[in-house]
């Protein structure tokens, strides 16, 4: 897993990712970093077991509200096949955390629909979260499970795309074979037609001087009569 120190900015020139090695961007919020890190670590470990060739790039943002914009910039860069967001939104007892959760999830959905890049969410909002040791321990372990689930979903998305690409290639090969089977018996006729066309072109080229000389004679006759 590559941990990137800087985030993509709007000034980044889009470049298309090429190659068979899938690249996955992980965007992790920094609040409750110890719990969130359990999900990112579990994701990378689980995905490596299913897709060893996959490359994961981990990037951190200050909070969950910064995730949608960075996800959009990553999607538009053309460098990533899947983007996965990680965060924990808790009820601090003062602000409406459900508003924050809705804004983040809606933003992530817009990113994948507008840019046609899958965006998976491990941005979780528990009904109640207290800073007690019991709650901390529960979510500390729970995020391992959610990271593993996200990795399974990511693998399914990538494998599904690969399968559809192979099916498309197989269908294209079949169509090409059929086209060749149709055209092959016509090859002698096509060669004959080409020969006739070539002969016609040669005859046309040879007739040009004669036509010009006739036109020149006509022009000379007209000038003399004047």
Could you name the key traits of this structure?
226 residues; alpha/beta; five-stranded parallel beta sheet; 5 helices; 61% helix
Structure, described:
This protein has five helices and five strands. It is of the alpha/beta class. Strands 1-3-2-4-5 form a five-stranded parallel β-sheet, sandwiched between helices. It is elongated and about 100 Å long. The model is unreliable at 8-16 (pLDDT under 50).
Q: What is the arithmetic mean of pLDDT?
A: 80
User: Count the helices. How many?
Assistant: 5
Estimate what percentage of residues fall within beta strands.
Answer: 5-15%
- The strands making up the biggest β-sheet line up spatially as 1-3-2-4-5
The residue fraction in helices comes out at: 55-70%
Task: Write down the overall geometry.
Answer: elongated
Q: Which residue ranges are poorly predicted, with pLDDT under 50 across at least 5 consecutive positions?
A: 8-16
Protein structure class: alpha/beta
Order of helices and strands: EEHEHEHEHH
Give me the Rg, rounded: 33 Å
Count of strand segments: 5
How far apart are the termini?
93 Å
**Major sheet attributes:** 5 strands, parallel
């Amino acid at each position: 897993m590559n941990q990137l120190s800087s985030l993509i900015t709007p000034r980044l020139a889009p470049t298309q990712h090429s190659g068979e090695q899938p690249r996955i961007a992980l965007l992790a919020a920094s609040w409750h970093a110890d719990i969130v890190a359990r999900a990112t670590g579990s994701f990378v470990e689980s995905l490596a077991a299913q897709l060893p060739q996959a490359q994961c790039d981990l990037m951190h943002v200050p909070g969950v509200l910064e995730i949608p914009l960075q996800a959009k910039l990553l999607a538009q860069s053309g460098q990533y096949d899947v983007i996965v967001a990680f965060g924990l939104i808790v009820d601090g007892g003062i602000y409406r955390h459900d508003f924050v959760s809705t804004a983040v999830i809606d933003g992530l959905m817009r990113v994948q629909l507008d840019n046609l890049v899958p965006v998976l969410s491990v941005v979780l909002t528990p009904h109640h979260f207290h800073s007690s040791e019991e709650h901390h321990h529960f979510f500390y372990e729970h995020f391992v499970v959610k990271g593993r689930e996200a990795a399974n979903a990511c693998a399914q998305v990538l494998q599904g795309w690969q399968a559809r690409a192979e099916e498309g290639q197989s269908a294209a090969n079949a169509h090409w074979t059929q086209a060749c089977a149709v055209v092959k018996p016509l090859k002698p006729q096509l060669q004959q037609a080409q020969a006739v066309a070539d002969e016609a072109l040669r005859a046309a080229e040879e007739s040009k001087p004669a036509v010009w000389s006739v036109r020149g004679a006509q022009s000379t006759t007209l000038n003399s009569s004047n």
